[in-house]
Every structure is written in structure tokens, then in C-alpha cells.
Amino acid sequence: MSVTFRRDDQPHRSSRLLSLDLADLLQLRILATMIWGELLGLYLRLLPPPHKNRLKMSPKFNGRLLLCTFAATASMVFTLTAAEWTTLTKHSGWKQHSMARPKPPVVEPAKQIGQPPSDAIVLFDGKSLDEFQTKNGKPAGWKLGDGWFEVNPGSGALFTKRSFGDVQFHLEWASPNPPVGVGQDRGNTGVFLMDEFEIQILDSYKADTYADGQAGAIYGQYPPLANATLPPGQWQTYDIAFRKPRYNEAGEMIESARISVIHNGILVQNNEITYGPTSWLRYDPNRKLPEKAPIQFQDHGHNVKYRNIWIRELPERAQPDSNELKPIETIKVDKAELAKLAGDYRISTKPGAKPLNIKAADDHLLIKYPSRQTILKLVPTSKNTYQFTETDARFIFSEDGKSIKFHIGGEVRDIQKIEN
């Protein structure tokens, strides 16, 4: 099993990996364990029968035992070495700490928690229902009050005029006070993300109903992790993170929708994977959905109020370009030159600080930081420059090999070799 660079193509995300992935590593460890077990069994079978001096064994037996020990140790070392050279998780394809990776946009937080940040789309500001319409495009027919609006029972659902995909969604609601009805017939409404995935709104304060229909439920699929409902008439908050389903070029779903919900500051849905669109009395199968769709506010026949509704559209993460995915171009360096760079290097002036250790391998360097167990591989890209294989970082050695300029994250750090 060779240790060579390759690229693995994955739907919607590119990865640069070593040829040993996590499954390979686990197989190697299992194999090493099996070898060790077999050799231990061999050791026991080769034990001489009991005699006066149990510690005395023949030279032939000692040779066999030495061979067994060497083979087992070699197998264990091989798996450990492979562990250092493999990427344990398939990542985004970006080198770690890559300076070419796009920086996130600056968003100014609201001065008060729960208010819209600078990049939010305000769907309801307390004054107008202009962002909403009925299913057939007519003006919203719900009751508009002083800073709130209320379901008009029997008038039908409201829909946002805009369509959305991945979002952060904030809304506040209040169930009728005094409460009317029991179970699902008590302050019932809901919001449907992409008009398909319902987050239940219900008066669940000291009220009984089925678990996957309580306030904060992903309706019919996931009960909330806690009942965080306040008494009727009090304003309650939902903060929802929604990730829409993903499809391949053939229209086949490769990733289900994911939903997180914070109800009154309490996490009640933790990045849950939906089974498909939510439904009553059955599970609807997954099907191809549009890239974006309106959000539905349900009319379930109850006078539930809403206020302070805003939403943030979430962008796709930037994918690495061809330059980022390009394999590292290495040069051949003489073993003697590699050996000159081996040794201990000072990375801290603190008393008693342990050094960075560099060892020479056949055609590259191995470095071991004192604060971590992993051995890192550096490959030569020019006479004095050695590149980290998974990180946008490099060591540039001085001509005499006694110091290093460590380039990482747009910074340069000086490292000095410890002379014996």
C-alpha cells in the first residue's frame, strides 16, 4: 500500500488526500492487531515444557522469539507511520490556513440580541405585511396590529414573496391568552421552510400532545429536545438554521435537509437530518425541490400572533480553485543534504521548553512538535524550501542549515537550530 498523493473527487466538495484514508488506516491497525495476536499465539506454542529453570530457553527458541518480536514491532510501527502521513478526515480541499481562501464578509451584529444584523432581510418590521402574500399572489389578509400581525382563521396561509434556500431565520410568536382547546387544537400554527419543512408552533405550556407535534418539533419527525414553551400570551422566540437538500447533476438527492432550532434560547433541534418533507399521517419521500422556495406561515384556525421576523441568506462555502488543488511539485534532494537539516530547533525561549525535532527520511523531512503527537511531513520544493503537505505553510532553511524562516498565515517566524 503506497503512500502517495492523489485527489479524490466528491460531490460538491473537492479533497486533496493521501492515498491512505481513514478506512485504510483502520484496516492497517486491525491487521497489525491480528499479526500481533498470531505472533503472541506462536510465542505461546513455542514455549518449552516446564522444567526446573523456567527462564532458561534454548538459543533456537530465543532466535524465534526475537524474530516474532521484530515482526510485530515492525507492523505496529508501519501503522503508526502511516497514521502520521494520512489525512484522517476528508476535508474541503483547501490547505489548512490557506491565505488564498476567501475571507468571510463583515456583518455588523445588532445592538440588541434578537434584532436583525446588518445583512438581514426584514420580513416584518411591525408596520407592514408587504413582504407577504397568499398562495395565489393576493395581498395578505391577516390582521395587522401595533407591531404585530395575527393569523386570520380561515383566510388561508401566508407566503413570503421572496424565495429562500439556506437561511438563518428569526421570528417571535405568542399563542392566544386565555388558552383555548387541548392538544393540537391549542394555539396551533407553523412555519414551513421552502414550503416543505414545518417547524411546529403550538401552545405546549402545561399541555399534552404527541411528542413530534409539540412546539419546536420538526413536525412528525423530531420532537424537540426540551419543552421550552412559555405561558400563553407571552412572546416567544425561534432562531432557526436551515440547510436545504443537495442534489447531484442527475437530480438525485445526495444530502437531506438539516435543521437546527433554538426556542427561547434553548437548543431544541440539533442539526437534525430530515427524512423528507414534513407531513401529517405519513412520511413523504424525498423529491427534487427547487433551489429556493417561499416560507409558508400556516393558518391552522388559531389566533397566533407574530412579530420581529427577519432572515439571513447563507452563502455556499467557497470551493478551492485549480491552483489550490494542484499537487505539490517537489524536487529531489540528496540524502546528505537532508541529514544536515536534521536536529533539534528552539521554538520557545521559555525555561525548560522542549524543542522542535526534525528527522531526515529518504526524500523528505519529518518534524515533531513537542506539543503534539502527530509527525508532520515536509517535502522539498526548492533547494532550501520545504512545504507542509496539508497546510499552507513552509520552512525556508538558511544556507548553513542553522536557522529556519517559518512562513504561515502571512507571518514569518524565526526558528534557531540547537547546536550540540
Fraction of residues in β-strands: 25-35%
Overall residue-averaged pLDDT value: 85
**Strands, total number:** 25
CATH superfamily of the largest domain: Exo-inulinase, domain 1
CA radius of gyration is: 31 Å
Give the N-to-C terminal Cα separation: 38 Å
CATH top level of the largest domain?
Mainly Beta
Report the uncertain regions. 1-23, 51-55, 74-89
From the spread of the alpha carbons, the general shape counts as elongated
CATH topology of the largest domain: Jelly Rolls
Order of helices and strands: EEHHEEEEEEEEEEEEEEEHHEEEEEEEE
* Total of DSSP H or I helical runs spanning 4+ residues: 4
Describe the protein.
The protein has 420 residues and is of the alpha+beta class. The protein has helices at 22-46, 59-85, 322-325, 335-341; strands at 5-10, 13-18, 121-124, 132-133, 143-144, 149-150, 158-160, 167-174, 189-193, 197-201, 236-243, 246-247, 253-255, 258-263, 266-273, 296-297, 305-313, 343-346, 356-360, 365-368, 375-380, 385-388, 393-397, 403-408, 411-417. It has 3 domains: 22-85; 121-313, Exo-inulinase, domain 1 (Jelly Rolls, Sandwich); 328-417. 15% of the residues lie in helices and 29% in strands. The strands form 5 sheets. Strands 3, 5, 6, 8, 11, 14, 15 and 17 form an 8-stranded antiparallel beta sheet that branches. Strands 18-19-20-21-22-23-24-25 form an 8-stranded antiparallel barrel. The chain is elongated and about 85 Å long. The two termini are 38 Å apart. The relative contact order is 0.12. Mean pLDDT is 85; it is low at 1-23, 51-55 and 74-89.
